[in-house]
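Protein entry
_____________
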Amino acid sequence: MTKELYIEKSLLKKNYQEVCGRLSGAHLLAVLKNNAYGLGLLPMARFWREAGIRRFGVGDPSDAAQLRAEGFTSEEILLLRSTAVPEEINALLDHNVIATVGSQEAALALSGIAEKRSAVAEAHICIDCGTGTYGFLPRETDKIYSIFSYMQNIAVSGVYTHLPGNLSLKKARACLDEFDGVLSALREQTYETGLVHALGSTALFRHPGLPQYDLVRVGAAMTGRIPGKTGLSHVGAVIAPVTDVRWIPAGALAAERLKLRRSIRAGLIPVGYADGALMSRPAYTKLFSLTKARRGHGKVHVKLDTGEEAAVLGMIGQNHMLVDLTQLRAAAGTLARVEVDPLFAGTLARRVQ
């Protein structure tokens, strides 16, 4: 059997219900960037369509092109980053994708290319209220006004911001106060703001009292990996067989660092950190690493299709791990299930069932 990432549809549905229970009048925009947070671009697009969601957010124009090619022709697709690159802008126009405009340069590039094509480009304006990544600063209202006043080839259909996941409630409210100030300024000038959105998965669950506006962007919540007590279920496990079994004598080294006090019947499973095993992003540090708290003998358990659990021995390798089968019935060929964050599961085939 080839190892693959198994995604339980029942858990996706459960997480979807948890998300819906947090909404207070806002609609969903399904975020499919980063291969739908590792869950699979096309499988998750189909899941969302079955759930009745018709607004998608992507991280790259190629994602939108793939969706259109696979029959997602009537859904609204928003590129969730600003771009002034002509090749990307042309791709957005080719596939009827809503652009994000986060700077005057991006606005001018979008307007100019749309004019040359005798087209009108739909766009959402992004306001930078805390990320420092992209978007107009709240004080740059004059630059935003110029899009409405002078760029006739851009049709603004939305305004949004993004709240970093590490913000306290006080800081999140301060960011939204700035965002609301921009919205008020636009409306005072009688400019239509269209759909307004600010919250993503983390803010939705961490700060339930924040205003949800028209849309809430949901992606990471479907993996179940949002900090705090959320009611979400972890989705994603690598399924692979035990490929070899051998006895390792007492006193020998197992899995690089573990010196055995007793003889152990060890099983080899071809799943390692390159497949996402024990990979995590420590909360809000922006660093990716192996979860230190779970390293070592007996700290991590792998579920076997015999109904048993096997403890991981020593260090996890890039493409393998060793488990203790001494007291277990498992043998070569027994299937093992290793829970992973889908975001780190690399190029493994996804199976939604």
Observations:
- Residues 169-188 form the longest helix (20 residues).
- Residues 292-298 have pLDDT under 50 and may be disordered.
